[in-house]
Amino acid sequence: MGVTLDLxxxxxxxxxxPVNLSGLTRAGLRQALIDAxxxxxxxxxxxxxxxxxxxxxxxxxxxxxxxxxxxxxQAKLAEAFTLARPEIVERQVSKDGxxxxxxxxxxxxxxxAVYIPDVGRAxxxxxxxxxxCTLNCTFCHTGTQKLVRNLTxxxxxxQVQVARDDLxxxxxxxxxxxxxxxxxxxxxxxxxxxxNVADAIDIISDNEGIALSRRRITVSTSGVVPQxxxxxxxxxxxxxxxxxxxxxxxxxxxxxxxxKYDLEHLMAGIRAYPGLxxxxxxxxxxxxxxxxxxxxxxxxxxxxxxxxxPAKVNLIPFNPWPGTDYECSDWKTIERFAAILNKAGxxxxxxxxxxxxxxxxxxxxxxxSEKLRASARxxxxxxxxxx
Length: 387
What we know:
Elements: H1 12-15, E1 19-20, H2 26-35, H3 41-57, H4 71-80, E2 81-82, E3 87-93, E4 99-106, E5 109-117, E6 123-126, E7 130-131, E8 149-150, H5 153-167, E9 181-184, H6 194-205, E10 217-221, H7 228-235, E11 238-242, H8 248-254, H9 263-271, E12 282-288, H10 296-305, E13 311-317, H11 331-343, H12 367-377, H13 382-386
Parallel strand pairs: 1-2, 6-9, 9-10, 10-11, 11-12, 12-13
Antiparallel strand pairs: 3-4, 4-5, 5-6, 7-8
Helix pairs in contact: 2-3, 5-6, 6-7, 10-11
């Protein structure tokens, strides 16, 4: 089993809420139908397959829409379970077409998901795996949000459902998808919630539902080394590493998790990642910080570090946020860094910042929405209150 941090703060009301079938694997769905006396065990597989198609292929949110299921069974399902989508607190669209949703899945539980067009085959959805984060990476605003809890598989899948609702992607298209890739690069460290992440990937990739290839699902980790093998074995997902430094001294500062799992152990874990090959390369993410990690010397050190690993390097211009001490590297500096990697045979695309105007870019998730909510809760100054 994977490591799943037990950090839930679930109220008794939430615990008693109906189970959302959207977050159950096929096996879980079959068992839920048996436990709720919806059907006998010998018919559970067939009934689960019917329901699965309605939920994950057609995207229905009402049991009454399941036309090949008897009305009395529909009523039993509605009494025992739910298909409800979470509340969309806010929807923003960037001038570049990026879409961001602030989603409330339970009282006090809010997450952000971002759809980025023209990424991957057609467009990528960046999903969150936790509410907040524990890693405190110093360049990342998302990391300044305190961890509340892990997301359930249903809450992870719900982000995909919300995006597909908005994009008009039901029933699941075989061709011309607008949402073609999923990246676990939102809030949180996915490998600290591996059980729920793995279940969500099983659901998203099922061929009779949303049907996204596992090769189009990427999980990004800051380097929870003991879980790398389990991630590859259980999910067959593509691996991305939030690297950002080529030596332990600097990475200890930028990515404090490095103090627990240093570069030597991280690189050994990557080299042993199940399925790693030229057809299934690891992606190294490297945020470009002016005067910190962007010199030609660092580029050559990076080449030495990843030598022999089937890989590409995503160079990410730093996305500024209020209060940060970091600056983005100059564009010429980034291009020079990329040229060194390219010359050595490593694809090193420079990730064009997307959604900066709605704080939807890498490392910016939830910052603005949390700031606005805090402002709303804060009492007005005495002078305003007296006016």
